[in-house]
């Protein structure tokens, strides 16, 4: 829908005003008009009616067109103003055009008026649109300038010849020279750049202008106080009409960050060395205990006592496996328990010389991780139950299989199954009340996990241990 045209007519002769309206309507212009002849009415309509265009007679009994034009320029400067007069000299008309009038039309040639009005309205619209566009550009430039000036990092704008076009407040404070002296210098002549780096920066700049990608790089710059600061530098193109016209260089001071990183890395290295030393000592102590038990068993003549020592030695080794798992883990707080179970089975098979053709060893695990509070008791439980199955489930040449399963149930609880299809426990054995050290240890460790244990004697022996999953 076209915008309504509001025409303010300054005319003291009603017939002339009517002729003006008639001529505009004849040319198909849709408009609303107001007719005034006194200054006070004119002022009121300028404010209230807000005309799209003003058509004014040059001379009125109580008012005049020149004053009306000046008032219009003051109150509504973007509104076109056309003189419509019975007589007007050429010199006067030219002078009024210079003073701000849009056009002039003689009353004896009103056929020109519609064309003049249309052209004036079109030019006013274009002028307004141009003004708005310029204001928007100005606003964007002011926003950019504010951001540029108060950006905390150092920003320097380089021309394609390498001269400094501009620099922000932070860069000006860093530069050894004043802002005025810095602008216009070649960047590699800056006292902030060390001599050994000047050639390198010139090479990078040339490569960038040739279209090569120059990513963020580290640089050493000398501050106004003479201190060498480490910077991370980001070059960015500035384009005009799609063409590169300047390069914006942003430098972030990373001296303190690098210093902190160095201190942290040194601290971590020291802790890693200390942790490695502790891990080595713990491993040596455990191996020493295992060796002492092995040595003591050599001098034991009683076979039952020798078995007890072997069982204890395997308990130590099962804990050593957990220790090794944590020390080799990327996360010292967790261990891959699936891998631990496989290594523990290998240890028991080797220690008790299990014939794996006769007794098959199987595992079904979900690759779960355990923390140290759960891993040690759980590892010892598996060691006890596997050792018991290997020694007692398949007497003589009996064949079968032992399986270890580890995963989560529907309630997200840890579930450990150690089962075999061997001869099973004797019906008179109550493992929770058994006096054997192995079963006593298993029950104690299950309590430590705050879990429960269930024994099933259907087609062999199955131990099911259930405990809540830790939050880690």
Automatic annotation (TrEMBL):
<dbReference type="InterPro" id="IPR035965">
    <property type="entry name" value="PAS-like_dom_sf"/>
</dbReference>
<keyword id="KW-0902">Two-component regulatory system</keyword>
<dbReference type="InterPro" id="IPR000700">
    <property type="entry name" value="PAS-assoc_C"/>
</dbReference>
<dbReference type="InterPro" id="IPR001789">
    <property type="entry name" value="Sig_transdc_resp-reg_receiver"/>
</dbReference>
<feature type="domain" description="PAS">
    <location>
        <begin position="140"/>
        <end position="212"/>
    </location>
</feature>
<dbReference type="InterPro" id="IPR011006">
    <property type="entry name" value="CheY-like_superfamily"/>
</dbReference>
<dbReference type="InterPro" id="IPR036890">
    <property type="entry name" value="HATPase_C_sf"/>
</dbReference>
<dbReference type="Pfam" id="PF07568">
    <property type="entry name" value="HisKA_2"/>
</dbReference>
<dbReference type="Pfam" id="PF00989">
    <property type="entry name" value="PAS"/>
</dbReference>
<keyword id="KW-0418">Kinase</keyword>
<dbReference type="GO" id="GO:0016301">
    <property type="term" value="F:kinase activity"/>
</dbReference>
<dbReference type="Pfam" id="PF00072">
    <property type="entry name" value="Response_reg"/>
</dbReference>
<feature type="domain" description="Response regulatory">
    <location>
        <begin position="6"/>
        <end position="122"/>
    </location>
</feature>
<dbReference type="InterPro" id="IPR013767">
    <property type="entry name" value="PAS_fold"/>
</dbReference>
<dbReference type="InterPro" id="IPR000014">
    <property type="entry name" value="PAS"/>
</dbReference>
<keyword id="KW-0067">ATP-binding</keyword>
<protein>
    <submittedName>
        <fullName>Histidine kinase/response regulator hybrid protein</fullName>
    </submittedName>
</protein>
<keyword id="KW-0808">Transferase</keyword>
<dbReference type="GO" id="GO:0000160">
    <property type="term" value="P:phosphorelay signal transduction system"/>
</dbReference>
<feature type="domain" description="PAC">
    <location>
        <begin position="215"/>
        <end position="266"/>
    </location>
</feature>
<dbReference type="InterPro" id="IPR011495">
    <property type="entry name" value="Sig_transdc_His_kin_sub2_dim/P"/>
</dbReference>
<feature type="modified residue" description="4-aspartylphosphate">
    <location>
        <position position="57"/>
    </location>
</feature>
<keyword id="KW-0597">Phosphoprotein</keyword>
<dbReference type="GO" id="GO:0006355">
    <property type="term" value="P:regulation of DNA-templated transcription"/>
</dbReference>
<keyword id="KW-0547">Nucleotide-binding</keyword>
<dbReference type="InterPro" id="IPR003594">
    <property type="entry name" value="HATPase_dom"/>
</dbReference>
<dbReference type="GO" id="GO:0005524">
    <property type="term" value="F:ATP binding"/>
</dbReference>
<dbReference type="Pfam" id="PF02518">
    <property type="entry name" value="HATPase_c"/>
</dbReference>
